[in-house]
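Researcher: I need the complex structure. Ligand is zinc ion. Inputs:
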Amino acid sequence: MNDRNQDQSATASPAIGRRALLAATTAIAAASILPRRSSAQSAASQASPSLPARGEFVVRGAHVLSMDDKVGDFPAGDVHVRDGVIVAVAASVAAAGAQVIDGKGMICMPGLIDTHWHHWTTFLRPALRADDPKKTYFPVSAAVGQHYTPQDSYHSVRLSLAEAIGAGVTTTHNWAHNVRSPAHADAEVKAMRESGLRGRFAYGPAQGMPNDQSMDIADWARMKKELAKDDMIGLGVCSRNVDAANASRGAINADMAKKEWGVARDLGLPITLHTNGSANIQLLAANNLLGKDVQLVHPLNLAPGDFELLAKHDVRYSISPTGEAGRTGETQLAELLQAGVKVSMSIDNVTADRCDCFACAKMLQILNRHRTAGKYSLTTRRLVQMMTIDGAIDLGLADKTGSLTPGKRADLILVKTGTPNMKQIGDPYDALVQQAQPSDIDTVVADGRILLRKREFTAFDFEKVAAESSAAFEALKARAKFS
Ligand SMILES: [Zn+2]
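Model: Output:
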């Protein structure tokens, strides 16, 4: 978090003048609030030219949850955004000339942050059958994934990111573990840029590649150069599981990990990998691989002592509550938090699951109660923190996003409270964890661009995205001879 909110008092207006200002601005708001298509992007930005322009607007009268203790919350507050930057957050902000978004009946909060999501698998949904072991997520993605073209990667990621926007996610960690060529990597990044969302592209292996073969480590430097001037998308590496016996799915041994991770570290790229129990942690530690540039995924089956080891090395852990609830073992959130490990929340996939950060938080709340019999307190505010600022910290983006802090980039959402499930709510954090649904997301802003307004996508024609995705999947299915 940064400290740049001292200008709040300077920009906050006294009550006088606000009514007049509202009258003046509301008239033009309805026509002008829907973003204009941008014809001129800044040279530094690689964003798609079809994205709406960043303008100047102020959300008025919302229940503001800043997720920044220095800023605080406001039962009826304003958030002023200009050129992609949060200018002010206060009970009342003047914002002369800014377009007005009526925040009454809304919670205004930071955009939700996912820290591990396999977007490339999304368009495989029609191939999956929940009740047929041969057609669940892993066997299908492993088999069909080997037939992906770059266009398949593009269409799947694009569909996936549409769901992300619709569910209030403004930052995502694209865990791309089917990069079959540099063109596949480019295709995924293209889809990310066109979405308008913030994120990290984690450059991974290809499905089915031999575990004694290195990833395309030579292409990481090219991609780093490609993304060097991209304000919205960073680069990382997703490693295959590291396992002494190469026993777990697609695992590599420690020697291969040291080789690949060494290249990643020379390039300054953060590393992420799935884990499967204490042996993984101990193997990484024994080979001096743990560090603050490492994000692990799925904290299941860890042993006493592992948590302190992870905290000592400042390792981050991403939790995918829904998927983990169906696996062997339990999400060990209380142990991680007690040891001081940085944790965040992730969607994992929307092929066999859905993007519902609220449900993920609720799942963690239930699991914690069940596991600790209420002995470990996990407040609803802490859970909202996990889906916002904690995700930003995990991804190294806390100086840009994760809270409504003046000076940060404007990644925010408006959550309706007038829906049947959100009517008559009490504490807003309780409501977000216990009642909210993705369909309550009214407005989504990423880097000052309004990407969803009154649940309408502004940057693309969703039906077109979906139709193209469907056609690509059918062609893939035929090519892979999948039935
Ligand atoms: Zn995963």
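Model: Summary of the prediction. The longest strand covers residues 56-65.
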